Amino acid sequence: MCDHCLKHGTAGKWYLNARNYTTEVLDDINIDEDFLKEFLLEQYKTFESMQVRKLAGFSAVGLGYKIKIPIIGRITKYFAEKMLHSEKSKFNPFQAEGHIGQVVPLDDAIAILENCVDENTIIMKYCMCRFQTRAEKEACCINFGIMSDIIDKLPRFIPEPEDSKYRLTKEEAIEKFTEFNQKGYIGTIWYGAYPYINNLCACKTPECAGFGPRLNFGIKSIFMAEYLVENNPDNCQGCKRCITMCQFGAINFNEDTKRSEIDHSKCYGCGVCVYACRFDALSIIDRQVIPTLAGKY
Amino acid sequence: MGKTKIKIDYSVCGDGNKIDPRECAICMKVCEPALFLLHQSLEKFENDNHYDPQIWRITPVYLSLCTHCMNCVEGCPEKAITVSW
Ligand code: SF4
Ligand code: SF4
Ligand code: SF4
Ligand code: SF4
Ligand code: SF4
Known about the structure:
Chain A has 297 residues and is α+β, with helices and mostly antiparallel strands. Chain A has helices at 3-8, 33-45, 63-68, 70-84, 106-116, 128-134, 147-150, 170-183, 212-217, 241-245, 272-276; strands at 101-103, 123-126, 139-143, 186-191, 197-203, 222-223, 227-231, 251-254, 259-262, 282-286. Helix content of chain B is 12%, strand content 21%. Chain B is built from two helices and four strands. Chain A binds chain B through residues 45-46, 48-49, 51-53, 60-65, 68, 94, 131-136, 206-207, 212, 216, and chain B through 3, 21-22, 25, 28-29, 32-34, 36-40, 42, 49, 51, 53, 59-65. Bound molecules: iron/sulfur cluster (5 copies).
């Protein structure tokens, strides 16, 4: 259980605590709903330029090189993590402050949609990460709460009518999310901003700006899931479908046994492979049961 | 190997000039590590965080990820990109 769960969770998981989806939590950090709305509106209007703006003299441009410089590297990493994990209430809307997330497999995503989210506020908007890296418009970001009040002021994120309807019922949202998961997109749940939860994303690498810093430079921009996946070699037929679907290179093929093997140290616990396997060989297990990986998010 | 430098000629692409990168975007689509970032241009407005919602440009961000495949250089219809290292 990570710090966030200890402080903000019920049943051990911060994202299954319905209170974190209500504006009531904003009292904890002494800000009000209007302030957060203004903040999010400003942030989303110019979302794509966040990475090129300078923070304390640094921007993300050339980050890979900066991190390799001995002292500057450590400082850059320190500042980036400090900002993403920020719990302070005076945000700068031009940085991704307090915007930290965690991978969630399908079952937890469904539990979030069923139990935590206010049905009247569910919307689906275009993914910013795919737009800012590929100029592609794909509606796969499920948002709720305050976001539903400001989305009409952000018309460029609203899916075109032929694409899809953007205010969803719980059932529609669950159906959409299940579809994304089957396509191989990684479920992620995000604070926006801490401690308020408003984003359930369906991500793809290398486009996702949330995964990029962690996968490329080891900055903890996102936490691994509470889970891992386990392979049952009796069922595995060695078809390699799971290997193709895993976006983290966490599954290897064992040429001797002709079975796939999960590299637990790389597994984010997204569960995408579980639904890809047609032979019921993969199952989700609690991260805590593997002593060396317990608590390693 | 030296550091990769990627230059985009903004007098041709972006900043409200001939090509709107939101429409072309070829370089962004052919780059395997997805290191190009499409964003509203801040050049003229940097100081007060203002921007024009219709004026965009592309910045190569994670330069260290470049594989020197040259897909972007070869794909750019305006020859507006140079990659060196
Ligand atoms: S976090 Fe994921 S779904 Fe959300 S905008 Fe980024 S890639 Fe898209
Ligand atoms: S998809 Fe299932 S059967 Fe195929 S290799 Fe992976 S675990 Fe084995
Ligand atoms: S091996 Fe882990 S990271 Fe890869 S798809 Fe399966 S659950 Fe996700
Ligand atoms: S050379 Fe290849 S890897 Fe480098 S920026 Fe161009 S397309 Fe991307
Ligand atoms: S391919 Fe060339 S013209 Fe097209 S968006 Fe990229 S830099 Fe601009």
